[in-house]
Amino acid sequence: MAAAGIAGVLTGFILKGPDMTASPEQSNAELSGGFSLARLIVLLLAGAFVLLMLDIREEHLEPIKHGYLFPWIPIVYSGIMFISCLVTFLRWRKPLRRMLMALFVLGIGVGLLGFWFHTHGHPLHAIQFAVQAWRSIPLPHHGQPPTLAPLSFVGLGLIGGISCSEWAQKH
Q1: Whole-angstrom distance, CA of residue 128 vs CA of residue 138
Q2: Three-class SS state of 63
Q3: Per-residue pLDDT for 143 more than 80?
Q4: Residue ranges of the domains in the chain?
Q5: pLDDT for residue 74 is more than 90
Q6: pLDDT digits (tens, 9 = 90+) for 85-120
Q7: What global pTM score does this model have?
Q8: Contacts of residue 96, Cβ cutoff 8 Å, sequence gap at least 6
Q9: Does residue 30 have a pLDDT over 60?
Q10: How far is CA 87 from CA 36, 47, 107, 109, 160, in A?
Q11: Phi-psi sector, 140: left (phi>0), alpha (psi -120 to 50), beta
Q12: Is the pLDDT of residue 64 over 50?
């Protein structure tokens, strides 16, 4: 029942855009259905985290089979973020947004840690390799982990952190 309501609001928002006929007393952030843009972004981030969790679980299968624990970090974090984003979207209370913001900040750390692991402790070499990929095609990858992929957590953390901020609630 709630999912149908959320889907209807999202469909209306996507097709019609924000409701710009709101009264001056109403917050500029209010959109159709009473959901702010920041709140809808948190819902979209929930979807991003569940997809990341599924994808990373598949990509980290070999290291996990060999008993390594570090590959579980982004998988567990993504699962926690999926649930946390959904709960915060549904309740949208200040204490939940603050908790979620702290988890988004943690995600920046998860992304930087993953970048460090994926580059085997040599992030500058990895960046040089990524730049070379634009100059030389095809570039042999040699079965190495995607060096820049963990930085997606940094981007999602920044987007989510901004969405949960007091500034986003006012604008």
Answers
A1: 16
A2: helix
A3: no
A4: 31-170
A5: yes
A6: 999 999 999 999 999 999 999 999 999 999 999 888
A7: 0.75
A8: 87, 88
A9: no
A10: 16, 13, 17, 22, 14
A11: beta
A12: yes
Q: d(Cα 50, Cα 4) in Å, to the nearest integer?
A: 19
In the three-class reduction of DSSP (H, G, I as helix; E, B as strand; rest coil), residue 131 is classed as: helix
Backbone Cα Rg of the chain: 19
Give dist(CA 78, CA 28) in Å, integer. 31
Q: Is the pLDDT of residue 137 over 70?
A: no
| Strand-pair partners of 36 | 30
Alpha carbon distances (Å) from 130 to 118, 124, 165: 13, 10, 33
Residue in the block written with tokens 């006929």: 21
Q: Among 139, 120, 142, 165, which Cα is nearest to 150's?
A: 120
Is the Cβ–Cβ distance between 166 and 117 less than 8 Å?
Answer: no
Lookup: tokens for 97: 């947004």
More confident residue, 15 or 46: 46
CA 70 to chain centre: 19
- Do the Cβ atoms of 81 and 44 come closer than 8 Å? no
What letter represents residue 100's amino acid? L
The residue type found at 119 is T
Average pLDDT over residues 125-132: 80
| pLDDT value at residue 130 | 77
